[in-house]
Each structure stands twice: as C-alpha cells, then as structure tokens.
C-alpha cells in the first residue's frame, strides 16, 4: 500500500498523486470515476491550484487519469495494469491526400478538436500519409484516426480488414464500414440534408432544387447520398412529391463555384423552375448565387439559395449564405476520445457516434415568391 501520510520531503503534487494511486489500488476509486476539479483538489489537500494541476497532469501522463473537455478528469480503465499501455501518440492517417485540402474548415476544425483532446491528455498528435504501400506507423500502440478516401472505390478494403484483424487502434471518420466492426465517428449527413430542406419548406417553398456532386443517383459517395436522403425525407414529411428533374448531378470530384453555376443554369431552365435551391456545398451555393445575379434575379427575393459547410467566407458573402455547420470540431474531439478512453479490442459491438450538424440561417433564404 502506498503512503497515506505526507513526509516532509515529499513534494505536495507527488503526495496527491500517491494518494490517488492508493485509492485506485484499494478500490476506493474505480475506472471512469470522476475526480474533483483542480480547484476542489487544491482545497481538499490544502494546497495551491498550480500544485493540484500538476498532480492531475502527471497522472494523465502516467496513464492513471484521462480528461474530457467540459466534463472533467476521470480514472483510466486498467490504469494500474502494466500490460495496459495507454496511447501516447495519435495520428491522423490519410491516403495520398493533397494537403491543401486540409485547409477546408471540415478538416482544420476537426484537427483542432483532436489537438485539444490530445494536449489535455499529454498525447502527441501528427499527420501521417499511408501512401501507396498502405503503411501505418510502426508503433502498434499508436491511435489512428483514419480518413479512408472521398472516392469510396479507391481504398483497399482488404488492408482495412487486415488492420482490424491485427487489432490496430483505429477509428474512421467521415466514412464508415459497419461490416468490419471498426469504431467510427461521422457527421449525420442525413440530418444535415433534412435540416437544410426543412428550413426552405418552412419558408413556404414547395419546388426545391438540389445540386449534388456525383455522376448519378446511383453513384454518390456516402455523404452526398445521405444528404439526398435527408432532402427526400423532409419533402415526404410535408407531402411534397419528390421530382427527379429537380435534382441535378455534377460529374466532378472537387467542389467549385463553377459546379454551382452550372447546376443553377440547369435548374432555372426547367419549364417549372424551383423557387429555392439546396446546393450541397457552400462553394456550389456561392456559384449559384453569382449565376442568379448574372441572370438578373434577386437572392432571396426571386430565388432562395442554401449551402452546406459554413465556410468562413459564407458569412460575408452577399447576401450572407444560409448553410449547415457540420460541427467537425466535435467530430475530432469524439474521434480522439474514442481512441483514448473508449477503445476496446475485444468489444462485440463497435463504438460509434454521429455528430449532429447545425442549421445556420442567413440572408440568402427567404419566403417563397407569391
């Protein structure tokens, strides 16, 4: 049993650590039990907050304690077990992605979320390109936040299955593979598509166009397919028939304003054009707004336009763009928390989570024209 009395030579932060370790060993503190805040801990041991903060930080470093932002500090599972090695390094692994794409808020905010959880728990965080040879970091104890691809058919599923068999500590983000039993966290794109469409319906729109990136309704990636399902669900709940002519597909891989302009042109040339358009990215939506202005139409007076992503420029576009924020900072936080605190190699049911996006109504959407 560890000492319960403080000797004159024992630094106070070390005494606090030893006392908490003693409580873990004796069963007074169990896995996932909450610890007092550093303020309360300082009061309990009659010391300063600086001292209690160091004690908690060192307990995190040694794998006895983990932290969750906004909730506090908790006892790590199997913290006293020498065979249970906590993750000390976390990698965001990707397959040959152009690093300039990671400046998009979807990724930059996700990285911020991962970084915050790592810093709070003394964990290193790095990017890692698995390359054409599909090489993961050599450290088998490293945590991997894995972005497979934006093109579903271009990632080798056999490699992913092999990593699962090797019990690599992997959580996938953005895309998921339920048949492999790999933990995942994604944005709820179905709800996002629903929120965007419901917003336009609430403004009185009944003919709502949609601009999607993909070859056809049968060849969409996961995120756009789910946004389309959300669109259709919102229509059906209001007894608005789904009209295939109101959904246009842009056969490109990269989002751009040009796609939005072309999609707008196709929709506005219909015999009965829509009164509102849901473009499934802010780039496409801003392109559609520019095309509407060139056509002599007022946004939102003549046509409402809805985006998706909540890019920084969307708030200062003219008019400011109504959009959907994907809350990817929370996506990053949850991916890191899953790896650090919830990952179980032998779990029968994979850990999973879906982050609910947020509707951001702004000036580009308004009541349907009478």
Q: Which labels suit this protein?
A:
Rossmann fold, 3 domains, 370 residues, four-stranded parallel beta sheet, single chain, Arc Repressor Mutant, subunit A, elongated, alpha/beta
What does this structure look like?
The protein has 370 residues and is an alpha/beta fold. It has three domains: 12-75, Arc Repressor Mutant, subunit A (Orthogonal Bundle), CATH 1.10.10; 89-187 and 328-356, 3-Layer(aba) Sandwich (Rossmann fold); 189-325, Rossmann fold. Helices cover 35% and strands 16% of the residues. It is built from ten helices and 14 strands. Strands 4-3-5-6-7-13 form a six-stranded parallel sheet, with helices on one face. Strands 9-8-10-11 form a four-stranded parallel sheet, sandwiched between helices. β1 (65-68) and β2 form a beta hairpin. α1 crosses α3 (49-61), α4 packs parallel to α10 and α6 (189-202) packs parallel to α7 (222-237). The model is unreliable at 79-83 (pLDDT under 50).
């Amino acid at each position: 049993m560890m000492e319960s009395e403080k000797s004159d030579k024992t630094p106070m932060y070390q005494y606090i650590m030893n006392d908490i370790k003693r409580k873990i060993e004796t069963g007074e503190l169990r896995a996932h039990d909450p610890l007092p805040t550093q303020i309360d801990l300082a009061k309990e041991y009659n010391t300063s907050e600086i001292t209690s903060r160091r004690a908690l930080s060192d307990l995190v470093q040694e794998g006895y304690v983990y932290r969750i932002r906004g909730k506090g500090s908790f006892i790590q599972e199997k913290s006293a077990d020498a065979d249970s090695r906590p993750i000390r390094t976390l990698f965001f692994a990707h397959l040959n992605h152009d690093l300039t794409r990671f400046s998009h808020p979807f990724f930059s905010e996700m990285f911020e979320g991962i970084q915050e959880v790592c810093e709070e728990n003394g964990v290193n965080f790095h990017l890692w390109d698995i390359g054409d040879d599909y090489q993961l970091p050599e450290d088998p104890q490293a945590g991997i936040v894995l972005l497979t691809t934006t093109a579903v058919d271009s990632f080798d599923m056999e490699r992913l299955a092999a990593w699962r068999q090797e019990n690599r500590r992997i959580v996938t983000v953005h895309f998921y593979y339920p048949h492999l039993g790999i933990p995942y966290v994604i944005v709820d794109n179905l709800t996002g598509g629903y929120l965007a469409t419901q917003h336009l319906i609430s403004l009185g729109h009944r003919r709502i166009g949609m601009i999607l990136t993909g070859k056809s309704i049968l060849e969409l990636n996961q995120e756009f397919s789910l946004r389309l399902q959300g669109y259709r669900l919102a229509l059906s709940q209001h007894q608005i028939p789904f009209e295939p002519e109101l959904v246009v597909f842009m056969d490109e891989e990269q989002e751009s304003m040009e796609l939005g302009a072309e999609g707008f042109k196709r929709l506005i040339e219909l015999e009965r054009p829509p009164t509102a358009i849901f473009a499934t990215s802010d780039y496409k939506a801003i392109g559609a707004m520019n095309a509407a202005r060139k056509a002599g139409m007022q946004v939102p007076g003549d046509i409402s336009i809805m985006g998706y992503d909540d890019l920084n420029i969307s708030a200062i576009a003219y008019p400011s763009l109504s959009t959907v924020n994907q809350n990817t900072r929370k996506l990053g936080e949850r991916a890191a928390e899953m790896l650090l605190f919830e990952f179980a190699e032998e779990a029968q049911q994979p850990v999973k989570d879906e982050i609910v996006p947020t509707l951001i109504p702004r000036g580009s959407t308004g009541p349907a024209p009478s």
